[in-house]
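From the shared-data thread, chain only:
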Amino acid sequence: MTSRVAPRMRHRIYETEYLGGSVTNQNTGTISGFNAIYGYRAITVVNAGTIAGNATYFTLALGSANVVGAGVDLNLGGSVTNQSTSVISGFNGIFGGSGGAGATVVNAGSIAGNATYGAGVRLRGGR
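Structure, as tokens:
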């Protein structure tokens, strides 16, 4: 992992941000959190283990915002390679390209989202 910053509170929810660079999760590794991995800038994620984000949908106090978690949130693009024995999960397993940036996903393992409203992979730009 490179360019990691300390977990911070966003909408009263803790997550770990990465300022670009890369995250590698080994085959016995687990990364978890509301957004298990949140790329503040474009990041590269290689997963051989388990990455688990929050899988439920809820509304913050006073109905101000609806919030969902992701295993990997590629906020400003990047790429995810999910190897054959690995798992990525969350409300959206992988969410990407919300800022209009491209995102690329290569999957040989399992990527799962909330069965009712979520998606395994939800990209807004990219391929």
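The chain has one domain: 8-123.
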